[in-house]
Design brief:
Layout: H1 3-13, E1 27-30, E2 48-51, H2 53-57, H3 64-78, H4 80-88, H5 95-106
Antiparallel strand pairs: 1-2
Helix pairs in contact: 3-4
Amino acid sequence: MDSKLRQRIIDRRGTHCWCGCGAQGSDMHHALIPRDVRFPQLDAEENLVLVNHTQHIHGLFDNAHWKRRFWSKLCREYTEEHMRKWVNSLPQKLAPRVTELMNLIDN
């Protein structure tokens, strides 16, 4: 991931883990759609949150509960309209993942 993007996210949101645990964040987590090197569009502010390393490596955030929570927080930061535009701008090849995410968010 681009170090300038990481710094921009830290400058905007701070250095604490986005789960609210109060720990220092150290890892950038693809919060809504998992990382895929074929799709650099997923390395976007709209899909990245800073999290605690220990929780990250144990997969704490890889479930529906955290996707909904991070979606809500990202919508407060960028607006829901902006977030939906970002999701809709993703390549067609990501359609199954986008559909899965939106079904999760909208239900």
